[in-house]
From TrEMBL, chain A:
GO terms for cellular component: plasma membrane. Belongs to the TRAP transporter small permease family. Part of the tripartite ATP-independent periplasmic (TRAP) transport system. It comes from Roseovarius halotolerans. GO terms for biological process: C4-dicarboxylate transport. PANTHER family: 2,3-DIKETO-L-GULONATE TRAP TRANSPORTER SMALL PERMEASE PROTEIN YIAM. Keywords: Cell inner membrane, Cell membrane, Membrane, Transmembrane, Transmembrane helix, Transport. The complex comprises the extracytoplasmic solute receptor protein and the two transmembrane proteins. It is found in: Cell inner membrane. The keyword Membrane applies. It is a multi-pass membrane protein. This is TRAP transporter small permease protein.
TrEMBL record, chain B:
The gene is siaT_11. Pfam families: DctM. Its main location: membrane. The complex comprises the extracytoplasmic solute receptor protein and the two transmembrane proteins. It comes from Roseovarius halotolerans. This is TRAP transporter large permease protein.
Length: 172, 420
């Protein structure tokens, strides 16, 4: 049961990101179909696809944190006299603190837009719900960073997906 | 000063690029009267840009095409055309890369799609493995020069220039670069005696391969034709590419089902996850950069050296090539566009032309270790080490630098098609 939950949670971002990307494609495909085939312009499609895209970007950023595939400059780490693992621990600590600030800032933004409601221009969706992805995804990312660090120290798993691993995945 | 220092410390420590851009800006924000919530707002606005939607869709289209066998069809046709020349299969690799580049906007994506089929095929035909990997890595750089192109989309958003114009401007330079790479491949194969496929050219087989692959071959024309004819915006074209690939895969070739579509989505999510997020902090970073007058200062110190546009482009390209050895290309474009653009405009360099130069230097960055993403992909496919492949890639880097010089000295090549 717990194992199943864990394996489910490990796929959480992948499922969410894939779904929002698929939805985005469907919405825009509908827009093109309506515009060029039925000659009807949809008023809501661009807005909803933009919102889906922002969700996709930040959720997939958490996916990338989970897989250790965020882009970093690792060249200098090789030349510094400190072992990589301590250096990347410091780097990830900075990352966690930054994300902490983003979570707080995001919650403030959500709260402000809940108290003084702002609505999207064509669908009148309260923007607070759309903004929610910022604190949510950055909080999720913190968990993924900690999970990866923990696995690196406990089981010696690589902290940063080896370039070749990323490459193999792309090639598959 | 503090701003630049924090940025450099984060960069050197190996903090992810999107955080490296965010931290110095956050420090400035916290010490200013601006409310913290505006950080979240900036992150949202940074990626809430409609043209960016084209990026994951072009990646997705490429992923579907490879799984549907469209990529293989394209390769088969190229093979029937030039397979028997000296270095035949290597030239097929570059040509297929050009074709795939006209569908995909990513360099490493092109290496993965073409290389995973052709690197093993070249080895079977007796080419040295490292040569095959080098050819695929180099051909893959065309992925970002021949439209569509992810760096061009990002540059267009940041520099507020038309992405359609950038796509048009990249066409001739892309064909030029492809031809130069084919030339280098041919000369190397000739010198080393890499013979083509012994089978002579058969007209019937050739026509049959084209007929079998007709829907696959039409893909770039569907994608780019729509943009160039002014029918589709780049975002719409990216959706058309996805839908077309799905139609060919599901209805015509019957090669993909839900499982493979899901895998393609997963590939796009994974690849885009670490990339597009950088745009979120980039806008934020750009604002504080401007507040600290950093672009102006860099512009002033560069203008002290020269005010000649050609000389300036040469200097900038040299800097970019050095940065490209250890920086990922898309992040380089994102960081440097706001820094260099004011200078470029001041000197009267066309921002479209500058965008093309930026993309070509990024191509070199794909091939230069320690961080050369195309090399990594080719190594992943061939099982070779980066050192082995990077030696073989040198003549191709020289070729791209030659192409870069031609483009710097003859801006008409990039600007000709958009002058109408």
């Amino acid at each position: 049961m717990i194992a199943r939950l864990l394996s489910l949670s490990s796929r959480l971002e992948l499922v969410l990101a894939n779904t929002s990307l698929a939805a985005l494609v469907l919405v825009l495909a509908a827009q093109i179909f309506f515009r060029y085939v039925l000659q009807i312009g949809l008023s809501w499609s661009e807005e909803i696809s933009r919102f889906l895209f922002v969700w996709f970007v930040y959720i997939s950023a958490s996916l990338a944190a989970h897989r250790g595939s965020h882009i970093r400059v690792t060249l200098f780490a090789r030349f510094l006299p400190v072992p990589d693992r301590y250096l990347f621990l410091l780097a990830d600590a900075i990352w966690v603190v930054f994300n902490g600030f983003v979570v707080v800032a995001g919650l403030m933004l959500v709260q402000r837009t809940l108290t003084y409601p702002v609505y999207s221009t064509s669908l009148f969706i309260p923007l607070a719900y759309i903004y929610l992805v910022i604190p949510l995804a950055h909080a999720l990312m913190i968990l993924r960073i900690l999970e990866r660090q923990w696995r690196a120290w406990k089981h010696g798993e690589p902290l940063i997906a080896a370039e070749t691993v990323v490459a193999e995945e792309a090639a598959r | 000063m503090i701003f630049a220092l924090i940025f450099l410390v984060c960069l050197v420590l190996g903090v992810p690029i999107f955080v490296t851009l965010g931290v110095p800006s956050l420090v400035e924000l916290v010490s200013s009267p601006i409310p913290l919530a505006s950080l979240a707002h900036s992150l949202f606005d940074g990626v809430d840009k409609f043209p960016l939607l084209a990026i994951p869709n072009f990646v997705l289209a490429g992923a579907i095409m490879s799984r549907a066998g469209i990529t293989r069809d394209i390769i088969d046709v190229m093979r029937a055309i030039v397979g028997q020349a000296y270095g035949g299969l290597a030239i097929v690799t570059i040509l297929s890369c050009m074709f795939f580049a006209a569908i995909s906007g990513s360099g490493p994506g092109t290496v993965a799609a073409i290389g995973s089929l052709l690197i093993p095929a070249m080895k079977e035909d007796g080419y040295p493995k490292d040569f095959g990997a080098a050819v695929a890595s180099s051909g893959g750089t065309l992925g970002i020069l021949l439209p569509p192109s992810n760096p061009m989309i990002v540059y267009g958003v940041l520099a507020s220039v038309s992405i359609g114009d950038l796509f048009l401007a990249g066409l001739l330079p892309g064909i030029l670069m492809g031809s130069l790479l084919i030339g280098t491949t041919y000369l190397l194969s000739r010198r080393n005696g890499y013979k083509g496929t012994p089978r002579p050219f058969e007209r019937a087989a050739f026509i049959r391969s084209i007929y079998n692959a007709k829907f696959s071959l039409a893909t770039p024309f569907v994608v780019l034709g729509g943009i160039y004819a002014g029918i589709f915006t780049p975002v719409e074209a990216s959706i058309v590419a996805v839908v077309y690939a799905l139609l060919v895969g599901i209805v015509i070739k019957r090669t993909i089902g839900l499982r493979r579509i899901w895998d393609s989505l997963g590939e796009a999510s994974t690849i885009c996850g670490g990339l597009i997020v950088i745009m979120g902090t980039a806008i934020f970073f750009g604002e504080f950069l401007a507040l600290n007058m950093i672009p102006q200062r860099i512009a002033a110190s560069l203008q002290a050296i020269t005010t000649d546009p050609v000389m300036m482009l040469l200097i900038i390209s040299a800097i970019l090539i050095v940065l490209g050895t250890f920086m990922e290309t898309l992040s380089t474009v994102i960081i440097l566009t706001p820094i260099l653009l004011p200078l470029v405009r001041q000197l009267g360099i066309d921002p479209i032309h500058f965008g093309i130069i930026l993309v070509v230097t990024s191509e070199i960055g794909f091939l230069t270790p320690p961080l050369g993403v195309n090399l990594f992909v080719a190594c992943g496919i061939s099982g070779l080490t980066v050192e082995e492949v990077s030696r073989r890639v040198l003549p191709f880097i020289a070729t791209i630098i030659l192409g870069l010089l031609i483009l710097i000295f003859y801006p008409q090549i990039s600007l000709f098609l958009i002058s109408f």
